[in-house]
Amino acid sequence: MEPYGIIPKIGKLLRSKEISCTELTKQYLHSAETENKRLNAYVKLTPEAALKTAAEVDRKLAAGEELSPLAGIPMTLKDNISTNGIETTCCSKILRGYTPIYDATVWDILKRQDAVLIGKANMDEFAMGSSCETSCFGGARNPHNTERVAGGSSGGVASAVAGNLAAFGLGSDTGGSIRQPASFCGIVGLKPTYGAVSRYGLIAYASSFDQIGPITRSVEDAALVYDAIAKYDPMDSTSSEKAQPAFSSLGKDIKGMKIGVPKEYFDGVREDVKAALQNALKVYESLGAEIVDFSMPSIQYSLPVYYILACAEASSNLGRYDGIRYGARTEHYADRDEMICKTRSEGFGAEVKRRILLGTYVLSAGYYDAFYKKAQNLRGTLVRAFEDAFANCDVIAAPTVPMTAFPLNFTARDAVETYLTDICTVPVNIAGLPGISVPCGFGGDSMPVGLQLIGARFSEPALLNAAFQYEQAARSDVFRAVETGVVL
């Protein structure tokens, strides 16, 4: 079967000299400049850097030099991934004008492989949100319907990839921020095992949850990007050497594979979303996989555990933004304390303030044992629950999100309801597991639905193969919905 990967297709066009990398890059830059008015996927375009890399790729092609699989491929980075000499704001007023003096490890890797950076992508402020609407630049729009959100917090990357303004992108996933926007936009989003991909240069939200991963148009593309960035990094104390290449595992027979389906994951899932997921499970059965229904009661603790621990870590991580060391500083103040208070009040948005306050509260002397310590204990319970589940199944299947993409301004009307939509994604981050969202059809509103597959730690080769087999077998129109680019 012909793969859906756009990265190999572009690579083939470049190597056959049907198009030059400079021509290709100019086409993507033109699309980004014109379509960004509609989608708001990018907060900063980088044409000078993109064309410089493209010229180097053309030189290597002319000289017959061997290229990496990602050489010449137009891509984007979420705006919380540090880029030396390029403004990186986390889409927050408090970091407007901040230009890092070093590259994040993932960008350093891709830059060395001659990936072409089209620009920095929109996101929820400091990655706190589920719709991309907490961005100080305004929210990214969904290419399937611009009256719907692209999802969050990596909404700009998902919008750019789904809207053909980039071939792939890197986002960060703290509680579902790669998988949820991928589901909303009908594309693929991979959250790797915690420690598989370096976090050095990722501006922190919650350090024990954050993980960088690819957002792509196909599983094949996701495997190629994962293999490129899943490297041990001595600059990251949580980096692991256990990550294994995944691309070579694609296409392996999954007959006899046990796919676990926890019933708790389907509680509260909209009926049209549930129907699409059930159809996806039937595809797996047709491939010879065995569906194993089971119960996982501890999932009910996921949301409170996540929001207590993540907000506690955020309140600590965001303490560095005080107007003294870097970032914005208020102009009128009487003394240092007033300057810090006014800088943070003016620089942070409402959602960031809300999470800082919650995190500070649960870490305070009177409430530490009642909330933070108890949440840490329950985190261990969830880790053990997943270990027990993987003793009886190879992969877990679940919804990515209980619904399709929200209408614009939905989160402003009901913040708590928005938090509840994270129920299917946060358990993966709590346990440090890999998870992938793959499009599996459409809801009754004609918006994409995502199937989430979850694997044991460092099982990316098997997980990506399971997703790849579904993608190849389903042949759903959702995979073709965004394949309208000028180079195809």
From TrEMBL:
Keywords: ATP-binding, Ligase, Nucleotide-binding, Protein biosynthesis, Transferase. One of its GO terms (biological process) is translation. The keyword Protein biosynthesis applies. HAMAP family: GatA (MF_00120). The active site is at residues 78, 153, 177. Pfam families: Amidase. It catalyses: L-glutamyl-tRNA(Gln) + L-glutamine + ATP + H2O = L-glutaminyl-tRNA(Gln) + L-glutamate + ADP + phosphate + H(+). Belongs to the amidase family. GatA subfamily. Residues 23-464 form the Amidase domain. GO terms for molecular function: ATP binding; glutaminyl-tRNA synthase (glutamine-hydrolyzing) activity; transferase activity. Allows the formation of correctly charged Gln-tRNA(Gln) through the transamidation of misacylated Glu-tRNA(Gln) in organisms which lack glutaminyl-tRNA synthetase. The reaction takes place in the presence of glutamine and ATP through an activated gamma-phospho-Glu-tRNA(Gln). GO terms for cellular component: glutamyl-tRNA(Gln) amidotransferase complex. InterPro entries: Amidase, Amidase_CS, Amidase_dom, AS_sf, GatA. Gene3D superfamilies: Amidase signature (AS) domain (3.90.1300.10). PANTHER family: GLUTAMYL-TRNA(GLN) AMIDOTRANSFERASE SUBUNIT A (PTHR11895:SF151), TRANSAMIDASE (PTHR11895). It comes from Caproicibacter fermentans. This is Glutamyl-tRNA(Gln) amidotransferase subunit A. Its EC number is 6.3.5.7. Heterotrimer of A, B and C subunits.
